[in-house]
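Exercise 7. Given the components listed, write out the predicted structure of the assembled complex. Treat all entries as one system.
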Amino acid sequence: MRALVTGATGLIGAQIVRALVADGIEVRCLVRPSSRLAALDGLPLQWAVADLADADAGLDDACAGCDIVFHTAAQFAYGGSDAAMMQVAVAGSERLLRACARTGVRRIVLTSSSVVFGHARDGVPVTEDAPLAASADEPGYVAAKIAQHRRAQALAELLDLDIRYACPTMAIGPTGSSLGPSNAMLVAYLADPFRSTYPGGCNLVAARDVAAGHLLIAAAGRAGESYLLGAQNLTWRQIHGMIAELAGVAPPQVELTHAAAFLAAAAEELRAKLAGRTALSTREQAGMVGRHYWYSHARAAALGYAPVPARAALVEAISWLAASPHVSRETRACMRLAEDIYRFRATATEMPA
Amino acid sequence: MARSTAGPRAGARTRAAAATGTPAARPGDAEAILDAVAIVDDDGVPPAGRLAAALQRAGFWPLLERLRHGRSRHRLRIVIKPELGGFAAGSPAITDPALVEALLDLLHDAGFTDAVVVGAADSSALWAGNRDLLSLSDLLGYRFATPKGRGYDIVDLADEIDDAAFPAASALHGCGLSRLWRDADLRIVFGTCRTDEALGCSLCLDTLIGVLPLVDKDLHYRRRRHPGDVAAALLAAAPVGFGLIDAIVGAHGEAGRRAPEPIATGTIIAATDLVLADHAGATKMGLDPEVSPLFARVLRTHPLPRRYIIAGSLRPFAGWRNVPPATLHATAQRGQAEMLDRLVEPWLQRLDTELFPLKHPLDAGVNAKLAELAGQPGMAPLLALAGALIGGVGEAVTAYRTLFDKDALRRQALPLGFDPAAIAGDPFADLVAEMQRLEPLAAAAPEVSPELAWQECDGAIVFRYRRTLPIPHAAFVRRVDIARTIQFMNDYLGGIVIVLARDAAGRPVRQAERNLYLPQPNYLVLYQGKPIDVSKLEVVEYGAGRHRLYWKTMLSENGSATYDDGIATFERAGEGTRVTITGRQRFTLPPFWQAIDLDLVPALKARLVTHAYQTFFDRTLANFEALVEGRDIRIGRPVDEPAPPPIEQFMPLVEWLGEALLPLLQGMGRSPPAPGGERDADGFVHITPAQQAAPDAEGLGAGIARFVEDFIRAGQRDLNLSRPAR
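Answer.
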């Protein structure tokens, strides 16, 4: 069996590649010319180079001979160019799906997002039965994922494709590519001198489990079905409290209001611009404060999906982050890692570059 | 007039032995005493004649004979470094080329034919044209042939560099040095006599720095290193055999080298010792030589000769005007804002732009308006005020970086500051015993946290910090080298470590170290707190499952510490490593905190001390953990990190401001746009929506409006929290 993985160097893509290789599956990775490949060093892989945002060139060759495609490629950012995100998510996905149809690849696991189903009301976790959310007033990334999901559903019918939708919640963990907004949330708390938290919450899951979920969906899922891949619903205060405990920094001291979160994000954007780095939090994200992005993964669980609790996901993520350049020297100097981190390190076998 | 004297620093270290028992000297007795300074201002003698007389009276020719060691005269390799830092032909701020050529003729006449003039481009080459060595020397008046028709070379000391010229203990360790300078039998520095806004006076020692190869000398040898350390390192690595000062026409005035004013002083100073030459030169300028931080620093390691001859008068030059103390102070303050200070230099430098055109149009424009004005004597107070303001900005930036952005600070390159070999007895055995006596004292201190115990003993804090890290001992000590513990501690900003002895496995067992830490606690920077600068002796032990480092303070160059002694222990503790740091510290508080007298409020003092020590060692152990993770824990940026010319750093800011503000400024004074659409038969102009929206769509104004709108929306959500979030 041969699988094509798009976005193979990303947070979820790289974990899928590793899981596939571990299962003895032949893997072809679709990467952009500018992708950093260090995260996949040493794995027996085939490479295909193409940019989904650009043109069809190379996509047929990439898909040819594959039995399944895991389409994880996306531009994941809050505050980036909405048009660019939409271009990759919608036009890029369409290019890939049409290439699949042309080359006879029928089965595709498309990495969507839990946010396409909106967020919880009155604390009741959202399921896959919820309708796709309206994209008006949503951040560019959310709107792009909703549009991608809709377009893929339409193309599945049009092109007679077996598309299954993996909808991860907030996935964290080691990555060899850019930090991404999910891991950046952890770094933002570690670097925050005020130790601020905010109302609302989200569902936290290990990227490794999301990858395992993708493989389960591929093997046992149903065509056209969506599967939420989460682990644990928590408030932001709970999440920040866990980060504090594991990293040995102060627990949350202050809960920001919407306006304060907006100003804090604006200040972070300004600092990042002056320092020439990516902002750890943005005004777009501040606009999502107060919501509970809580989800149920019961449907995936029925396939055998069994993610580790959020705390275990945080242990792995913080263990990696503490040693990575994503956490600044100054931030690292303020941390006192919990023994759980050291226990994890003693058993861990692999860390991304 | 000639007399012999005991130098003001008689008894200082290096020269003491040689001078013991020297008989009283007589005029012309230079050979007996060896060191001499001649100040020649003989009436009716032309400059070249005064130079010849100065050489004669300072014992120059006997010196050459001694250096020859029986070789023929023409094989003695002589290099002459004149001062070339002038910005106009005939500038009094440079050594007169005619005198340099006269010196060459005198040497040739005496048979010393292997003599070359040397130099190297300086920082001004970054912002002005024709500042490369050959163009510069040509424009300043060097003719490449002496009055007697002998051709000579001016050799660039930036060529043929020895990268290992400076030993590990040197402030210039890792820097290059010209092989020509290094290998010469006699090095002569031919300085000039000029006032200087940074140093008070610029004489031979300042000219000496010009032998170093990097173009941006100002950055690398004066700002990122103390110029005194640099000159001292040069004197140690390649001693200068003779110093000359051209004071035929001095450069005096309040503006220093920036706008040198010529004054006829008719003097040549010659000395067998460069420090002695500068001492005489500064005295002739009516200054205490130690007003120059460069001279004062050099004096620590290169004191004046114990006995020397003064041939001539040290009476100050008549009519000489020096840089006012307020200007010196303001210049020192201004130096704290590296980029700004360097930025304004080409703006204020009076120069002949025909010979040395400014490279950047902005520099040229500002210089044309400011340089002449800023050179007026009456401008000194205003410039001092501006300097103080820029210095204030620099201090604020340093304080901000110390507190919030340590990685933006500049690391420091420092020399050791003391000679371990000069310490009598066995200081290493003594220090181990002394430090071990601290352990019971520290162990008896009350615990203020699970890790920290401390008590005050004779004004010092004796403490013990102990924590077990869940890292196997072997893995820990592999990454955290006990011998480098001092460098791994929190807020280490630079220093130097010299290994004095190693064990059979090649590991350091005895070391001398100088370290610089940020002010502790960091907030003391807001009260003019000094960095902690301590030189230490250290002993390292490597036992089975236990590594130890002992250290004891020998010196604090800036007086920041009386004690900073201790023991660091990394020992096996089950599956982990127990780190124990025991110490005795007494740091000098800034005046504000001394005035408060915290002993009157012991509870507050205890709280502050506990917080300071807990924070420092928590962060130190986080550094150790980070080292095990393979991270770089050093704060600050490298000492010799290249910096583009300040104008290149400044222009993006100007351009950004221009881009950001211009639309606003234009918008303020702009009339409503004229209708640009089609006019129909009835005279109505039809404007499309796109035409209306275009001008401000991407402008700053639109961005601000969007920001305010989003902020108001966020505020509304706060006021309506009962409503479901959108």
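Discussion: Chain A touches chain B at residues 119, 121, 137, 200, 257-259, 261-263, 266, 283, 286-287, 290-291, 322-323, 328-330, 332-337, 339, 342-343 (CB under 8 Å). DSSP finds 13 helices and 13 strands in chain A.
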